[in-house]
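hey so u asked for the seq, here:
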Amino acid sequence: MTTPFDPERRKPGLMTGLRSSFLTGIVVIAPVALTVWLIWTIMGWIDGFVLPLVPSRFNPEQYIGINLRGVGVIFFLIFTVVVGWIAKGLIGRSLIRFAESLVERMPVVRSIYSGVKQIAETIFAQSERNFEKACLVQYPRKGIWAIGFISTDAKGEISERAETMGKLMSVFVPTTPNPTSGFLLFFPQEDVIELDMSIEDAAKLVISAGLVYPNAKDPTQPAKAA
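ran it, C-alpha coordinates below
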Protein backbone atom coordinates (compact mmCIF):
# COMPACT_ATOMS: atom_id res chain seq x y z
CA MET A 1 0.00 0.00 0.00
CA THR A 2 1.37 3.40 -0.97
CA THR A 3 0.72 6.76 0.64
CA PRO A 4 1.28 10.32 -0.56
CA PHE A 5 4.38 10.43 1.67
CA ASP A 6 6.15 7.55 -0.06
CA PRO A 7 9.31 8.67 -1.89
CA GLU A 8 8.34 6.83 -5.08
CA ARG A 9 4.82 5.92 -6.13
CA ARG A 10 4.10 2.61 -7.80
CA LYS A 11 3.62 2.73 -11.57
CA PRO A 12 0.30 1.55 -13.00
CA GLY A 13 0.23 -2.12 -13.88
CA LEU A 14 -0.32 -3.68 -17.29
CA MET A 15 -4.03 -4.32 -16.72
CA THR A 16 -4.58 -0.72 -15.62
CA GLY A 17 -2.94 0.56 -18.79
CA LEU A 18 -4.97 -1.81 -20.98
CA ARG A 19 -8.18 -0.78 -19.26
CA SER A 20 -7.40 2.90 -19.76
CA SER A 21 -6.58 2.34 -23.44
CA PHE A 22 -9.76 0.31 -23.91
CA LEU A 23 -11.95 3.04 -22.42
CA THR A 24 -10.22 5.66 -24.55
CA GLY A 25 -10.84 3.51 -27.63
CA ILE A 26 -14.53 3.19 -26.72
CA VAL A 27 -14.82 6.97 -26.44
CA VAL A 28 -13.33 7.34 -29.93
CA ILE A 29 -15.14 4.45 -31.64
CA ALA A 30 -18.61 4.71 -30.07
CA PRO A 31 -19.70 8.05 -31.60
CA VAL A 32 -18.44 7.04 -35.06
CA ALA A 33 -20.01 3.58 -34.91
CA LEU A 34 -23.35 4.85 -33.64
CA THR A 35 -23.46 7.57 -36.29
CA VAL A 36 -22.70 5.10 -39.10
CA TRP A 37 -25.23 2.61 -37.72
CA LEU A 38 -27.93 5.28 -37.44
CA ILE A 39 -27.36 6.54 -41.00
CA TRP A 40 -27.27 2.97 -42.35
CA THR A 41 -30.50 2.08 -40.53
CA ILE A 42 -32.35 5.20 -41.73
CA MET A 43 -31.23 4.56 -45.32
CA GLY A 44 -32.52 0.98 -45.10
CA TRP A 45 -35.84 2.16 -43.66
CA ILE A 46 -36.30 4.71 -46.46
CA ASP A 47 -35.32 2.14 -49.09
CA GLY A 48 -37.85 -0.34 -47.74
CA PHE A 49 -40.60 2.27 -47.91
CA VAL A 50 -39.75 3.97 -51.22
CA LEU A 51 -38.44 1.21 -53.50
CA PRO A 52 -41.71 -0.80 -53.58
CA LEU A 53 -43.36 2.35 -54.98
CA VAL A 54 -40.77 2.76 -57.76
CA PRO A 55 -41.54 1.03 -61.11
CA SER A 56 -39.24 -1.95 -61.62
CA ARG A 57 -37.76 -0.55 -64.85
CA PHE A 58 -36.31 2.36 -62.86
CA ASN A 59 -34.86 0.17 -60.10
CA PRO A 60 -31.12 -0.50 -60.61
CA GLU A 61 -31.47 -3.83 -58.81
CA GLN A 62 -33.29 -5.22 -61.87
CA TYR A 63 -30.18 -4.65 -64.02
CA ILE A 64 -27.24 -5.37 -61.71
CA GLY A 65 -28.86 -7.96 -59.43
CA ILE A 66 -27.56 -6.28 -56.28
CA ASN A 67 -29.60 -4.41 -53.70
CA LEU A 68 -27.82 -1.08 -53.39
CA ARG A 69 -28.67 0.58 -50.11
CA GLY A 70 -29.37 4.27 -50.55
CA VAL A 71 -31.11 4.08 -53.95
CA GLY A 72 -34.45 4.70 -52.27
CA VAL A 73 -32.97 7.74 -50.53
CA ILE A 74 -31.98 9.18 -53.92
CA PHE A 75 -35.49 8.64 -55.31
CA PHE A 76 -36.97 10.18 -52.18
CA LEU A 77 -34.76 13.28 -52.45
CA ILE A 78 -35.59 13.74 -56.14
CA PHE A 79 -39.31 13.30 -55.50
CA THR A 80 -39.24 15.73 -52.56
CA VAL A 81 -37.40 18.39 -54.57
CA VAL A 82 -39.89 18.07 -57.45
CA VAL A 83 -42.87 18.31 -55.07
CA GLY A 84 -41.34 21.36 -53.37
CA TRP A 85 -40.66 23.02 -56.73
CA ILE A 86 -44.28 22.44 -57.82
CA ALA A 87 -45.64 23.62 -54.46
CA LYS A 88 -43.86 26.97 -54.86
CA GLY A 89 -45.70 27.69 -58.09
CA LEU A 90 -49.15 29.18 -58.50
CA ILE A 91 -50.74 25.89 -59.55
CA GLY A 92 -49.11 24.02 -56.69
CA ARG A 93 -50.27 26.54 -54.09
CA SER A 94 -53.80 26.38 -55.49
CA LEU A 95 -53.81 22.58 -55.30
CA ILE A 96 -52.51 22.67 -51.73
CA ARG A 97 -55.19 25.14 -50.65
CA PHE A 98 -57.87 23.01 -52.32
CA ALA A 99 -56.60 19.82 -50.64
CA GLU A 100 -56.39 21.53 -47.24
CA SER A 101 -59.94 22.82 -47.63
CA LEU A 102 -61.07 19.21 -48.11
CA VAL A 103 -59.08 18.04 -45.09
CA GLU A 104 -60.65 20.78 -42.94
CA ARG A 105 -64.04 19.12 -43.46
CA MET A 106 -62.88 15.81 -41.96
CA PRO A 107 -63.01 15.98 -38.13
CA VAL A 108 -60.42 13.34 -37.17
CA VAL A 109 -58.18 13.74 -40.20
CA ARG A 110 -58.19 17.52 -39.71
CA SER A 111 -56.72 17.26 -36.21
CA ILE A 112 -54.02 14.78 -37.25
CA TYR A 113 -53.06 16.77 -40.35
CA SER A 114 -52.91 20.05 -38.45
CA GLY A 115 -50.64 18.63 -35.76
CA VAL A 116 -48.28 16.93 -38.21
CA LYS A 117 -48.12 20.06 -40.36
CA GLN A 118 -47.19 22.27 -37.41
CA ILE A 119 -44.43 19.87 -36.38
CA ALA A 120 -43.07 19.69 -39.94
CA GLU A 121 -43.11 23.45 -40.35
CA THR A 122 -41.36 23.94 -37.02
CA ILE A 123 -38.59 21.46 -37.85
CA PHE A 124 -38.08 21.74 -41.60
CA ALA A 125 -39.57 24.99 -42.88
CA GLN A 126 -37.02 27.57 -43.97
CA SER A 127 -37.76 30.83 -42.21
CA GLU A 128 -36.06 33.66 -40.40
CA ARG A 129 -37.78 32.81 -37.11
CA ASN A 130 -34.73 31.55 -35.28
CA PHE A 131 -33.45 32.22 -31.80
CA GLU A 132 -31.73 35.59 -31.68
CA LYS A 133 -29.21 35.23 -28.84
CA ALA A 134 -28.29 33.14 -25.82
CA CYS A 135 -28.98 34.68 -22.47
CA LEU A 136 -28.92 34.20 -18.70
CA VAL A 137 -32.10 34.37 -16.63
CA GLN A 138 -32.88 33.67 -13.00
CA TYR A 139 -34.99 30.51 -13.05
CA PRO A 140 -36.74 28.75 -11.31
CA ARG A 141 -36.17 31.36 -8.59
CA LYS A 142 -34.01 34.36 -7.80
CA GLY A 143 -30.38 33.43 -7.26
CA ILE A 144 -30.44 30.39 -9.56
CA TRP A 145 -29.27 31.09 -13.10
CA ALA A 146 -30.23 29.23 -16.25
CA ILE A 147 -29.24 29.49 -19.90
CA GLY A 148 -32.03 30.53 -22.24
CA PHE A 149 -32.53 31.44 -25.86
CA ILE A 150 -34.18 34.73 -26.77
CA SER A 151 -36.85 34.16 -29.41
CA THR A 152 -38.67 37.47 -29.78
CA ASP A 153 -40.39 40.28 -27.94
CA ALA A 154 -43.73 39.36 -26.40
CA LYS A 155 -46.65 40.66 -28.44
CA GLY A 156 -50.42 40.83 -28.41
CA GLU A 157 -52.45 39.83 -25.41
CA ILE A 158 -49.47 38.48 -23.48
CA SER A 159 -47.67 41.81 -23.66
CA GLU A 160 -50.81 43.80 -22.85
CA ARG A 161 -52.03 41.78 -19.87
CA ALA A 162 -48.72 41.09 -18.14
CA GLU A 163 -48.30 43.24 -15.04
CA THR A 164 -45.00 44.84 -15.90
CA MET A 165 -43.92 48.38 -16.67
CA GLY A 166 -41.38 47.51 -19.36
CA LYS A 167 -41.10 45.28 -22.39
CA LEU A 168 -41.41 41.51 -22.09
CA MET A 169 -39.09 39.09 -23.89
CA SER A 170 -39.91 35.52 -24.91
CA VAL A 171 -37.18 33.20 -23.64
CA PHE A 172 -36.95 29.45 -24.23
CA VAL A 173 -35.23 27.71 -21.32
CA PRO A 174 -34.06 24.25 -22.49
CA THR A 175 -33.65 21.10 -20.44
CA THR A 176 -30.49 19.00 -20.13
CA PRO A 177 -29.37 16.94 -22.02
CA ASN A 178 -32.24 17.34 -24.52
CA PRO A 179 -32.41 21.01 -25.53
CA THR A 180 -35.44 20.44 -27.78
CA SER A 181 -37.66 20.28 -24.70
CA GLY A 182 -37.97 23.06 -22.19
CA PHE A 183 -40.11 25.97 -21.06
CA LEU A 184 -41.36 29.09 -22.81
CA LEU A 185 -41.07 31.92 -20.28
CA PHE A 186 -41.66 35.66 -20.48
CA PHE A 187 -39.19 37.88 -18.64
CA PRO A 188 -38.98 41.65 -18.28
CA GLN A 189 -36.24 42.94 -20.55
CA GLU A 190 -34.16 44.18 -17.62
CA ASP A 191 -34.05 40.65 -16.14
CA VAL A 192 -32.55 39.10 -19.29
CA ILE A 193 -28.74 39.16 -19.60
CA GLU A 194 -27.58 38.63 -23.17
CA LEU A 195 -24.44 36.50 -23.64
CA ASP A 196 -21.63 36.88 -26.15
CA MET A 197 -21.48 33.14 -26.84
CA SER A 198 -23.19 31.85 -29.97
CA ILE A 199 -26.41 29.83 -30.00
CA GLU A 200 -24.37 26.74 -30.94
CA ASP A 201 -21.98 27.16 -28.01
CA ALA A 202 -24.86 27.66 -25.59
CA ALA A 203 -26.56 24.52 -26.93
CA LYS A 204 -23.34 22.53 -26.46
CA LEU A 205 -23.15 23.76 -22.89
CA VAL A 206 -26.70 22.60 -22.21
CA ILE A 207 -26.30 19.23 -23.95
CA SER A 208 -23.05 18.44 -22.11
CA ALA A 209 -24.57 19.37 -18.72
CA GLY A 210 -21.93 22.04 -18.22
CA LEU A 211 -18.93 19.92 -19.22
CA VAL A 212 -18.22 21.68 -22.53
CA TYR A 213 -17.71 25.41 -22.21
CA PRO A 214 -17.09 27.73 -25.17
CA ASN A 215 -13.58 29.04 -25.59
CA ALA A 216 -12.96 31.98 -23.32
CA LYS A 217 -11.06 33.83 -26.04
CA ASP A 218 -11.09 33.63 -29.82
CA PRO A 219 -7.46 33.96 -31.02
CA THR A 220 -8.66 35.30 -34.37
CA GLN A 221 -10.32 38.31 -32.72
CA PRO A 222 -8.44 41.33 -31.33
CA ALA A 223 -8.36 41.72 -27.59
CA LYS A 224 -11.05 43.96 -26.13
CA ALA A 225 -10.00 47.12 -24.42
CA ALA A 226 -10.35 47.00 -20.66
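DSSP finds seven helices and five strands in the chain. Helices lie at 14-50, 61-64, 71-88, 90-103, 107-124, 156-161, 199-207.
lmk if thats what u needed
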